[in-house]
């Protein structure tokens, strides 16, 4: 009987991985798919470039604010009880934005409301996947490998987004909004059928005790935990800043638009996606290896970024952004695994949600800061990106070695 149960768990785990991977894919599509469509939205709605940028920004801001709340709730009422309603809210947001764009004149503010709801949904979806993976598997190798697949799904969403967004908008400009609830529905069905979230036997802490307990964890593990928060934010900041730069130079210098532009954007992202998958498979439960891969990945980001100062030839830019993409793809799965495996099950939702918030801050800050630097300090932007990545690399080298200290002392 024991053997039968074990086999069933393996089967469920494989379907769980597939189902859980759909969440970061859907959430990434729901945001990044609109990036190549923004010029069309600006033209159709007759709004300023700042207003159209808010369609992306409002999504990230709401997610940043609400991710810690979602993490707290997932620790107390269960992961699936947060994920499924969140996907429903994200789908409703897509419906509101799509119908407004289709049927309402001067629909900008209603579209923005729909995007805000999507941000609310995003807060309780992908960030909760990380602790749920930690709950589903007892073996650290399986946790690391699965988190690599989850991160690969996230990056694959970034590869697919510009191509799919441009393709759908080629029919009617608001179809990308309408596609979001369809993707959410598919993910909801998969999660409901295949993901069996383990039940917690412990009684949740009252809110005041929970806050105090969280402060204690942050203080106890501050040597490495703050470093992971910082590195995660910097890696996503550099990624979205460099994607903005590539998108801008392709359109303004080389007049490459629509699906062709999406294909060029997908090249460094494809390298990022493949590297994430390979890294997740290789790191297993070796925390020292995770630290070194993160450090080497950050050095690769610096190498690819600093080279951008020397030429604006398209293939030169693509090659060195691909090197930076490999570095980003190598650093993300170890960070996910380190923070998930380094925190006890009862606090995973809260701590990993703070980490996810930091990543969202990087996502939100990258494009506008890069736009300002490109306008006022041409070429200086790459030195800035290298400088902050170098600080992240130093943090990875000196701080991540402290992860096991609290367990061994």
Automatic annotation (TrEMBL):
One Pfam family cited in the UniProt record for this chain: MFS_1
Record flagged with keyword Cell membrane: yes
Domain of life, per lineage: Bacteria
Keywords from the named record: Cell membrane, Membrane, Transmembrane, Transmembrane helix, Transport
Subcellular location as annotated: Cell membrane
Transmembrane segment boundaries: 12-30, 50-70, 82-104, 171-195, 224-246, 262-280, 292-308, 314-335, 356-374, 380-400
Record flagged with keyword Transmembrane: yes
Domain Major facilitator superfamily (MFS) profile: 16-404
PROSITE patterns hit by this protein: MFS, SUGAR_TRANSPORT_1, SUGAR_TRANSPORT_2
Membrane topology: Multi-pass membrane protein
Family: Belongs to the major facilitator superfamily. TCR/Tet family.
Stated name of the protein: MFS transporter
Organism of this sequence: Niallia hominis
């Amino acid at each position: 009987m024991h053997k039968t149960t074990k086999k069933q768990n393996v089967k469920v785990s494989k379907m769980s991985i597939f189902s859980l991977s759909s969440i970061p894919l859907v959430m990434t599509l729901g945001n990044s798919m609109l990036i190549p469509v923004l010029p069309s939205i600006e033209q159709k709605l007759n709004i300023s470039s700042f207003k159209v940028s808010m369609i992306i920004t409002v999504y990230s801001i709401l997610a940043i604010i609400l991710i810690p709340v979602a993490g707290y709730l997932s620790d107390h009422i269960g992961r699936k009880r947060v994920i499924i309603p969140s996907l429903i809210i994200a789908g409703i947001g897509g419906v509101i934005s799509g119908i407004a764009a289709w049927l309402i004149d001067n629909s900008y503010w209603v579209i923005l409301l729909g995007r805000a709801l999507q941000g609310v949904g995003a807060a309780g979806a992908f960030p909760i996947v990380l602790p749920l993976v930690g709950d589903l598997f007892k073996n650290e190798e399986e946790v690391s490998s699965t988190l690599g697949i989850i991160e690969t799904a996230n990056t694959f969403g970034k590869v697919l987004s510009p191509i799919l967004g441009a393709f759908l908008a080629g029919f009617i400009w608001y179809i990308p909004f309408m596609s979001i609830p369809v993707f959410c529905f598919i993910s909801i069905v998969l999660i409901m059928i295949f993901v069996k979230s383990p039940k917690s036997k412990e009684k949740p802490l009252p809110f005041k005790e929970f806050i105090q307990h969280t402060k204690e964890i942050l203080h106890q593990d501050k040597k490495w935990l703050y470093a992971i928060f910082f590195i995660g934010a910097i890696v996503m900041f550099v990624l979205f800043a460099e994607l903005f730069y590539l998108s801008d130079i392709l359109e303004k210098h080389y007049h490459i638009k629509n699906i062709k532009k999406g294909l060029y954007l997908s090249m460094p992202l494809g390298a990022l996606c493949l590297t994430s998958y390979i890294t997740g498979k290789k790191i297993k439960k070796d925390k020292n290896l995770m630290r070194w891969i993160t450090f080497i990945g950050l050095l690769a980001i610096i190498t690819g970024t600093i080279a951008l100062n020397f030429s604006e030839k398209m293939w030169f830019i693509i090659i060195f952004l691909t090197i930076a993409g490999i570095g980003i793809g190598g650093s993300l799965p170890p960070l996910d695994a380190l923070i998930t495996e380094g925190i006890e099950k009862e606090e995973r939702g809260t701590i990993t949600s703070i980490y996810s918030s930091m990543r969202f801050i990087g996502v939100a800050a990258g494009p506008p800061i890069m736009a300002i630097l490109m306008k006022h300090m041409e070429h200086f932007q790459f030195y800035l990106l290298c400088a902050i990545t170098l600080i992240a690399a130093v943090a990875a080298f000196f701080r991540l070695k402290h992860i096991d200290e609290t367990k061994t002392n």
